[in-house]
Amino acid sequence: MQKRKLGNSNLEVSALGLGCMGMSTNYGPATDKQEMIRLLHSAVERGMTFFDTAQVYGPFTNEELVGEALSPLREQVVIATKFGFEIDSNGQRVGLNSRPEFRVRGSWSVWTRTLQQLQSN
User: Quick one: three-class SS letters along 69-87?
Assistant: First the structure.
């Protein structure tokens, strides 16, 4: 698998990445979780190191799936995620909000939740 360097950083990822949205939402019912975990492991075994998710996919369930699947392989992969979606208590997206006061609320933050779901630091 070819590799690409991201920007001016030393972060290197596979030339092909895997968008994970359809594993848990948007394209019909969610696929079997264990099957998706096997798929993600298989992708890493084949040299893929770049995976994409977002808090809005599910919402939150896709980050949880990707985090669970890739946590044992975390040192080998890069996970990209997106934020800024305001989600109500029923799990419905109600708007966009990337203002600092929304991203960080006391000790809880969008980043804290995302990192927990991705089982990352």
Answer: HHHHHHHHCEEECCCCEEE
**Average pLDDT for runs of 10 along the chain of length 121:** 92 95 85 94 97 86 92 93 77 76 54 68 63
Q: Within the chain, what is the greatest distance between any pair of CA atoms?
A: 43
- The residue among 103, 108, 106, 110 whose CA lies nearest residue 60 is 110
Degrees, nearest 5: CA angle 102-54-97 = 25
Backbone angles phi, psi at 56, to 5 degrees: -75, -15
Known catalytic residue: 57? yes
CA distances from 71 to 9, 47, 58 (A): 23, 16, 19
Whole-prediction pTM: 0.81
Active-site residue, from 23, 44, 49, 57: 57
